[in-house]
């Protein structure tokens, strides 16, 4: 990677990003962490990496050239992980409410409709999710879009593209005592798929893109 480029890690919640944070910390000595979308951009001008839970578009506010990375995850697994993470995290602002909900109540609660197609929304700068717009952003601005279910392979591509050294890791922030999607009733899976059709399509596109890029490395 061109050392003049600022690495921007767009951390989509519950996609394995906390683990990637530790790997990035081993690569760079000047990192800005923006966990609450505060856009602490004056420090980004001199940083090597900028990472946090923010939507695509940070580069519009930075004078230096930027390159993005992120991870995407199977939509059903991501929703399961998110639900159990909030239930297990006392300090999460939604813990008290969601702790009283079943998983089905959570995925059908109108209050949390914004979580549907959230991964696509991240690529669309927080605006109305649009599949073609998200694909275009991915292709023009992202050096690597990793796939959580192919974490090691994704990491190998990042190492190659970004000239990283030590990429050894331990999984962090993993929800405990949670089911997999194979444990869910068929109708629940159908509801998640219906609410996240754009994310499912974008995930498939990103996975095919990753596989093609890995094949090109061989």
From TrEMBL:
Keyword check for DNA damage: no
Lineage: Bacteria, Bacillati, Bacillota, Bacilli, Bacillales
Entry keywords, A to Z: Glycoprotein, Golgi apparatus, Membrane, Signal-anchor, Transferase, Transmembrane, Transmembrane helix
Native organism: Lentibacillus salicampi
Compartment list: Golgi apparatus membrane
Membrane topology (UniProt): Single-pass type II membrane protein
One BP annotation, GO: glycolipid biosynthetic process
GO cellular component, one term: membrane
Pfam families: Gal-3-0_sulfotr
GO function terms (MF aspect): galactosylceramide sulfotransferase activity
Name of protein: Sulfotransferase family protein
Entries under InterPro entries matching the protein: Gal-3-0_sulfotransfrase, Golvesin-related_Golgi, P-loop_NTPase
Gene3D superfamilies linked to this entry: P-loop containing nucleotide triphosphate hydrolases
